[in-house]
Design brief:
Layout (H helix, E strand, L loop, with lengths): L19 H16 L12 E6 L5 H12 L3 E6 L11 H8 L5 E5 L3 H10 L4 E3 L7 H13 L8 E5 L4 H13 L2 E5 L8 H14 L3 E4 L10 E4 L11 H7 L6 H7 L4 E4 L11 H4 L6 H21 L6 H9 L1
Parallel strand pairs: 1-2, 1-3, 3-4, 5-6, 5-8, 6-7, 8-9
Helix pairs in contact: 1-5, 1-11, 2-11, 3-4, 5-6, 5-11, 6-7
The structure holds phosphoric acid mono(formamide)ester and norvaline.
């Protein structure tokens, strides 16, 4: 007989693992937790999460650890920068150990396949804390930040200016699920993943989202917020050619003026000041970057409550663990 008592079986490998109503519920809980910090106390009492990191982090690690502490739970950090998952023992064996002690697994990994492999092998929720393709926890915090500034899911539009990367992918998924507009501006050759965009465009037929991908910065006119990120993500080759391609796309005062005087500035951080954004813009009154950072904790606390409360007695553990071997 196993000691294992699954409390949740649903993973967040990418934002589109959540239905529209689930995202809206999580965002409502996150806003409530932020307004009423005492409400999180005990929400994770007696529960442990483990956090696997193949890449560096400030915000993700801090927000999950502090969040678990405030909810009366425990977060354990496992550093995998030097020993990528699957090297010391198989990913499946690793996951099947962790699920005996932990109620959820938070993983920051190099490849999306590691998240899906871990999710397939384990019966506890696996939360993607960034991989090459997605950063769903960031998107949840960003949505919370936008909504608290008055973003209208039916009428407002978000502009992305920069690399078509993991953060960009999760925001496109967010737009397609919730039905808001997103204009993605990248240098030619650095567009978001074509298959992901196609899936999101197909979904937007049901939700009414407007998804535009272009290399013309003038397309950001009228956007509610302008969002950028480093042009070289963790683990990517840092080439002079790539940096040169992004120079015309630096978010500076002139670029923000195209969006309009009320446009917010957003960045997942860490920022490379003087590269993708100027000091003047990131330090301006319109910048909400530290609200985004704070909201990582509120949104993730709400996410954890959602996933840990989700009881889905599927055969996931038995069916997919076999497949992963
Ligand atoms: N935005 C974000 O994920 O920050 P870290 O890389 O510091 O966790
Ligand atoms: N796109 C960046 C996000 C960092 C939070 C990276 O993957 O490094």
């Amino acid at each position: 007989m196993t000691m294992f008592d699954p409390v949740g079986t649903k993973d967040l490998a990418r934002l589109s693992d959540l239905a529209q109503h689930e995202i809206l519920d999580i965002l409502a809980t996150a806003a409530d937790f932020k307004r009423n910090p005492q409400r999180v106390a005990g929400a994770m009492a007696g529960k442990s999460i483990c956090m696997l990191f193949e890449k560096p982090s400030l915000r993700t690690r801090m927000s999950f650890e502090v969040g678990a502490f405030r909810m009366g739970g425990q977060a354990i950090y496992l550093d995998h920068k030097d020993t990528p998952l699957g090297t010391r023992e198989t990913l499946g064996d690793y996951g099947r150990n962790l699920e005996r002690w932990c109620h959820a697994i938070v993983a920051r990994v190099n490849r999306q396949a590691t998240i899906t492999g871990l999710a397939a092998a384990t019966r506890v929720p696996v939360i993607n804390a960034l991989c090459d393709m997605h950063h769903p926890c960031q998107a949840l915090a960003d949505l919370q930040t936008l909504l608290e500034r008055g973003f209208d899911l039916n009428h407002s539009r978000l502009a992305w200016v920069g690399d078509g990367n993991n953060v960009c992918h999760s925001l496109i998924e967010a737009a397609s699920i919730l039905g808001f507009g997103i204009t993605v501006v990248t240098p030619k050759g650095f567009e978001p993943d074509a298959a992901l965009v196609s899936q999101c465009v197909a979904r937007s037929m049901r939700t009414g989202a407007r998804i535009e991908v272009t290399s013309d910065v003038h397309a950001i006119a009228g956007a509610f917020a302008v969002y950028t990120d480093a042009c070289i993500s963790m683990g990517q080759a840092d080439t002079a050619e790539k940096k040169a391609a992004f120079e015309p796309y630096q978010v500076d005062r002139e670029l923000m003026a195209i969006a309009g005087p009320k446009a917010l500035f957003m960045h997942c951080l860490p920022a490379h000041r003087g590269e993708e954004v100027t000091d003047e813009v990131i330090d301006s009154a319109n910048s909400v970057v530290f609200d985004q950072a704070e909201n990582r904790m509120h949104a993730q606390n709400a996410l954890l409550c959602h996933l840990l409360a989700t009881k889905q007695p599927t055969a996931k553990g038995t069916a997919t663990a076999a497949a992963s071997r």
